[in-house]
Design goal:
By secondary structure, the protein is of the alpha+beta class. Helices cover 19% and strands 33% of the residues.
Length: 233
Amino acid sequence: MQFHIRCGDSVAKPLTVHIRAARSCLFGLIAITLACASPAQAHPHVWVTAHEDVIFQPDGKIAAIRNSWVFDDMYSAFAVQGLAKDGQLATKEQLAPLAKTNVESLAEFGYFTFAKNAGQNVDFGLPRDYSLEERPDKLVVLTFTVPLKEPLDPGKAFTFSVYDPTFFVDFSLAKTNPVALVSAPKGCSIGVLGANPLDVDDAKKLSEAFYQNLSPGANFGMKLADRVIVACP
């Protein structure tokens, strides 16, 4: 897959630009402007590998979800462009303004984190503990915690998924230890229902025109998202 890059604009952009301009150009979470791809090419988008932590309170209620999102090598290189010197890794301090911009821009879109309990939507509060970090392998990781507005007893019916409804950002859970329970009561367990691999393969072959014609309510990303189920006695 090839990306056509416009390098004249490296100022961080809020995610609203990514969503609203997506029909003509792609603006991703790392806030680097990518020029439009030709209709003959596969639709360009950002690839994210996600690890999720479900955080419990001492009383056994779910309090928050911590997202750790690893960006693809192309976007990671754009994020640290001009920051690292002499082959050194960019520091959290250098990336802090970009982390703030990205996390704040996610608010309008539910932080790409969607949860239900007993079939009812779960609301989240303002994110905390957010940071961007460049790993030794040169990939950039965005980490942030979204607290539930009201901590809840999960019972056997708490589920959540991480996805971009428009599928311009492609999320997939990590292959190893994708989800962890933090301070969970004894007996709690997790399960992951994966998307149909055939559906995902077919989606990657779809034309640019298909993505351009997606309606805002199509919620295409949800159809391809993994679903995490948390069950407690």
